[in-house]
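=== RUN LOG ===
request id: a7f3
mode: sequence -> structure
chains: 1
length: 144
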Amino acid sequence: MQEIHDYLVREEESGLILSLGGSKQQLSLPGVLVEKGFKLANGESLWLSSNDSPYEETLFVSLVNSKNLVVDKLELFKPYTPGILNEVVVGDSSIQFEFWAEETHQVAVGKDKKLRFPRLFSEAGCYYLSKFMPSRLSISKLEK
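=== RESULT ===
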């Protein structure tokens, strides 16, 4: 994965609208702030956005296909818990980051859609777009 820097953001009632690379292509994302974006080797992208609330932050992780449509999404949210995106480490098909103090998560992008059992019994604070649909995104909490 490679970080994306070339985009413009416009906030609307429905979320964020991104214009990519000076082209007319646009992308719709949840939240009010783009934290980071990454280009995958296959032309897709992975975006981290937030609702920018200092007291009850939500982090949205969106997998976007080459046609700029969100094909999978997960959310990290804990009631009354602040979150700040820190310590982002990028791999070939995964990213690691700290969002809540002292907790490191890893989001991996698989090649094929699978029904992933951790989605059915996800850890506290992790919510998926759909628990019962095959997905390419998985998240795990890493032990320190």
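=== NOTES ===
The first strand starts at residue 2 and ends at 3.
The mean pLDDT is 84.
=== END ===
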